[in-house]
Amino acid sequence: MGNGMARRSRRGKRGLWAVVMMAVVLLACGASRSFKPLPSTTLPPGVAPFEIVTLGAGKLQSRAGRNGVQLWEHSLEPSSETGNGNGVLLAAGGLIFHRDQEDSANVVEAFSAATGAQVWRLNDCPGYDDTFTANGGLVFATCGASAVTPVPVSDDTLYVLDAATGTIRWQVHGEHFRAVAGDLVITQTSSGLAARTLVQGDLRWSRTIAFPPLALPAFDVAVTAANGLLYLSPDGQYVVALRIVDGSTRWETAPLTSLANAPVSRRNLSPSFAVAAVTARTVIARDVSLAGYAVVALDATTGRVNWHLQDDTPGSTLTSLVGSDGAIFVDSFVHPNDPVETLRRLDPDTGSQLWSTPGPILRSPPLWYAADALYASDSPQLLAFRASDGTRLFGDQGIFPTEVNANADVIVVADGRNLYLLSALDGKQIWEAQDAGLVQAAPIILPVSG
Fold first, then answer.
1. From CA 410, how far away is CA 423, in angstroms rounded?
2. Rounded to 5°, angle at Cα 90 from 420 and 73
């Protein structure tokens, strides 16, 4: 049983927002669990064995998928300021990789998924690194980038580590990891982009691209390799496609904000686009600034704008989620005095509506997409919709989700300090683990043998 959602996750604005909203709900309820209990069920006997790995406040835990019994726990070195470990969690090759983040222990470490024993550890790797990646037996970690104080890429160091042993295969100063493209590693430099060989780190090509000065690399630049090209938005205003083989330009768009007049009632925010997904035909650029744009769809071969969606209605909001497969979901909240919430799925190539259904009551709700299902938080319940046609699968009272992961069989939900395993079929509860810690990354659903 595979993990249906991308395994890289971090504690971010969405998780923080959900935790704050959950606290408001709990206070309103007298800080006690007065929600309607979830109906219970059992895990079907045919489901292959799996475990649930979570990253909580200062601890890494693994629980048996069938009954939630804790298999192991590893205490993480706490932050000197907050007392909480936090960061990014990955799984590959029977190992769990943990990357500490800002104001924490500044380490990269690997643990055995079976026992929780630490396998290796890289010390003195400070800063925030949202591009932390495990790929093809290697781990890519950039040390030096800050989530609080902008630092130039020239202060970064990229480490390419052997995933099994933590041995440094090669390293380069003044570059930030961006993507793996075949046998090349794509990095951001102080003057643009570079491509290095995957095995030795030898420079294959470099080219100049104007990035904003002192931009936060971990947030502002997403590079996607597909169709023999690299797609990115260097400054959040336009998108460029570069040939992977030599870094030359295939196409470049005009500023995407020139498509239409700036949206209204957006607190003077400026749109900032990032490449969210690439299909064989379409590049999806998503506005990550909350300025009022949703998505712009570009022809993957020519860069021509195929269609775009923009929120220009006073008092309304658009919340968009773009899956790695190009699936586009939009939650629309129209006029707060007469709220109408609608959840839609759009065709990435044409922008046409594939389906529409009444959405969550919450304005700008957190959304999760995994295993052909869309999940939404709706104060305090978890809503589930079939991604292919929008059919509502269930809506359960008693959970205010802050992190969600799922596959075809089960859904793992964290709400503050508790962890739940639900049936993906009907949302019934299989088990609950209380006081599981403040889960700070999407739980990992990890297949195990035996």
1. 5
2. 55
Reading the block at residue 5, the tokens are: 């959602």
Query: Are the C-beta atoms of 321 and 373 separated by less than 8 Å?
Result: no
Quote the CA–CA distance of 15 and 367 in Å, as a whole number.
Answer: 11
- Whether pLDDT at 15 is above 90: no
Helix (H) or strand (E) holding 15: helix 13-28
Q: Name the token pair of 199.
A: 């095995």
Mapped onto helix, strand or coil, the DSSP state of residue 438 is coil
Distance CA 184, CA 381 (A): 44
Encoded amino acid at 447, one letter: P
pTM (2 d.p.): 0.85
C-alpha–C-alpha distance, residues 44 and 61, integer Å:
24
- How does pLDDT run across 40-51, given as a tens digit for each residue? 888 878 899 999
Question: Which residue spans within 273-349 are E strands per DSSP?
Answer: 273-278, 282-287, 293-299, 305-310, 317-322, 328-334, 340-346
Name the nearest CA neighbour of 316 among 265, 355, 368, 259.
265
What is the pLDDT, as a whole number, of residue 16?
42
How many Cα atoms are found within 13 Å in the side-chain-facing hemisphere of 297?
Answer: 19
Neighbours of 424 (CB within 10 A): 19
Residue 191 CA, chain-centre distance (Å), reads 27
